[in-house]
Amino acid sequence: MTTDMLNGKMFTQMVQSGAHHLKNNAKKIDALNVFPVPDGDTGTNMNLSMTSGADEVKKLNSDHVADVASAFAQGLLMGARGNSGVILSQLFRGFARGMNQKASLSAKDLANAFDSGVATAYKAVMKPVEGTILTVAKDAAETAVVESETESDVIVLMEKVVQVAKTSLQRTPDLLPVLKEVGVVDSGGQGLVTIYEGFLAALKGEEVPLQDAEDIDMEEMVNAEHHKIAQDFMDTSAIKYGYCTEFMVRFETDKLKENPFDEEQFRNELSKHGDSLLVVSDDDLVKVHVHAEYPGEVLTLGQYYGSLMNIKIENMRDQHTAIVGDQEQKEKSTEKAEYAIVTVAMGSGVKEMFASLGATVVIEGGQTMNPSTQDIAEAIDASNAVNVLILPNNKNIVMAAEQAAEMAKVNAEVVPTKTIPQGISALLAFHPDAAIGENRASMEGAAKEVKSGQVTYAVRDTQIDTMTIKKGHFMGIADGTIKASNEDKLETTQSLLNEMITEDDEILTILQGEDASDDDVKVIEKYVADNYEDVEIEVHKGNQPIYSFILSVE
Amino acid sequence: MSIELNTNDGQVTITDEVITTIAGGAAVECYGIVGMASKSQIRDGIAEILRKENFSKGVIVRQVDNRLHIDMYIIVSYGTKISEVAHNVQSQVKYMLSKSLGLEVDSVNIYIQGVRVAKD
C-alpha cells in the first residue's frame, strides 16, 4: 500500500493509536525515569498529556489535517503534565503550525511539520539538554526532511522517522551521563518513540500490539529501579525489603485453566510483598523483578501459573554493606594524587596554617635549622603525587629544594619563596586544575606581590650599611634588608611597618611569634589602626621561634 | 545569612549564594523557562533576563524559624502550560538542593515575571 497524502481522518487514527500505544507502555517508561528528577512519573505524565490531546481530536472529528493537529496541540497544552508533557505539547504545537492550514499533507509537508515542531520545542528552553526527548525529536525530524526530498510515500517516511528515533534513543546514554551510569535510555525519548510507533502502526492499518516487551529491555528497567533504591538508602539498616528477586514463569496450560493469568491482578498481588516491582508478560512468559523480604512467597505466587525459570535472588543488605564498604576503601586507597605541595615552616601555628591551606607535607625548618636536600626528597616521596611543588620559604633552602626537585622521580618544581608570607601567597595562588608549569609561574607571581617583614633579635654586634646593630637589639627586616633596629621590640616593629606600608596597601597579616605576647599584638594593632586607617589587620598565632613577628603586607 | 550544618568532623557553612546558584542553575535547565528575572524589576529594568552571575537577584533564600523558603522570579516561554512549567521548576529545584546539599526546602515559590513570545 502506498499513501501520497495524509488526511485528517488518518491523522486522527494516528493520534489515537499513538495514545493507545503510549498508555500500554506508560509503566515501563516510568521505570526508566531517572532524569532530571528520578521520580518515575514520565510515562504517567506523558500518558495523561497524550490522552488529553487525543480526546480533543476525538471531539473534533474532522478531515482537515491542520485542524486535527491544532486540536491535538490544544489538548496537549491543556493537559500537559510534567516536563515531558510540556515538551510534547511544544513539539506538536510547532508541528500543527508547520502545516500552514493544509487540509492534507504530502510526505514533504509532514517532514516540514516535524521540523517546525522541533524548532518550536527548542525555542522554549534556555539550556536544551541533549540526550533527552528533544534530541530524539530533532534527529527524527532532520531525517524526515532529508528523506522527503526523494520519498513521496508518507508510510515509508514515517517508517524512517521511527527507525531514526529508535537509533537516536539508543544513543541517549552517550549524551547524558546520568543515563549511562544507570544503564537506561531516556524515558521521555522512549515515550516519543512509542508515540511515533503508534503513528506508524495506524498508517499501516495495523492494530497496536498490546504489549511490546522487546523494545524496552527488562534489564534497563531493573537498573533504573536499583538506581532509585540506591539513592534512597544511605544506611543499610534502612532497607525494608532485603532481597532482590528476579524470575520468569513459563505458562503451563493446565495451571492457566485453574488460574487464568491477568497481569494487572498479578502485579497487585506482588505489590503486597515488596517494591521496585516490574512485571512484563507475553503469551508464553512473565518476567518479574521485585524487592521482597520473603522471596519464597513471591515465587509461590508465580508458580500458580507455570514453572519457574532463571531465578536470581540477591541479598541487598549484604550488597549495600559491600558498596558502602567499597567506597570507604576507595577513599583510603593509596592512589597517587595529582598534586602535592611540600613546604618548609617553623612554629606550630605556621605549620598548621600551611596545612590548612592545602600543603601536603610541611617540613619542620627555617632560619637556623635548614632541612637538607635529603629531607626534602623524602617529603616528595612521602607526598605520593604525580606533580610536586616545593615552597622553601627561606632563601637558604631554595638551593636544597632545587636539588631535591632534580633528584625526584616525579614532576617536581620549586617555587622559590624566600619568606613565610611569600609561601602563603604562593600557596593561595595554587590551582589544582592547571598544569605544573602554569602553577609554578602564577605562584611565583603571587609570591612577588606580597611584601614580607620579619622582626627578630641580633645575635651579635654588627654594622650593616649605615646601621649599627647591637647584640640583643631587635631588627626589622623587609624583604631581606634590615630597615630598623632598636632595643624595643614594638618600636622596631612600628618603624618596620612605616617602611613597609604604602598608600596602595590594604591588608596586613601578622604572625605572632613565640616570644610575642597578646599585649604586644594589641599595641601593634592599635598603632596600625591609628596611623593607617585603610589597612585591615589579620592576626594568626604562628608560635614561630626566632621571629617575634612575621608581617605580610598586600 | 547562611546555613550551618554540624557534622562529626566539624561545621559546614553554606552561604545563600551557593543555594541561589544551584537553585537558579536547576531552574534554567527546566523546559519552558526562558530565564531568571530580577525580583525588583523597576530598579533593575523591566523583566530583564538575568545572566548567570546575577541569578541571585532572581532567587531569594529566606530562613524563617529554621525553615528554608526559596522565592524564584522567572520568565517563561509563550505557549507552554505555565502552571506545569512552574511545577517542574519547583520539583527540580527541590531535588537538586536535596541532592547536592542535602537541604530540605520547605517551599519553592515561583513568581512568573514575564512571558517571552518567541519569533516564529
UniProtKB/TrEMBL annotation, chain A:
GO BP field: glycerol metabolic process
Classification via PANTHER family: DEGV DOMAIN-CONTAINING PROTEIN DR_1986-RELATED (PTHR33434), PHOSPHATASE PROTEIN (PTHR33434:SF4)
Gene3D superfamilies xref list: 1.25.40.340
UniProt GO MF annotations: glycerone kinase activity
One Pfam family named in its UniProt record: Dak2
Chain ranges of the DhaL domain: 9-201
Originating species: Lentibacillus cibarius
Listed name of the protein: DAK2 domain-containing protein
UniProtKB/TrEMBL annotation, chain B:
Pfam families: Asp23
Family from the record: Belongs to the asp23 family.
Protein name: Asp23/Gls24 family envelope stress response protein
Natural source organism: Lentibacillus cibarius
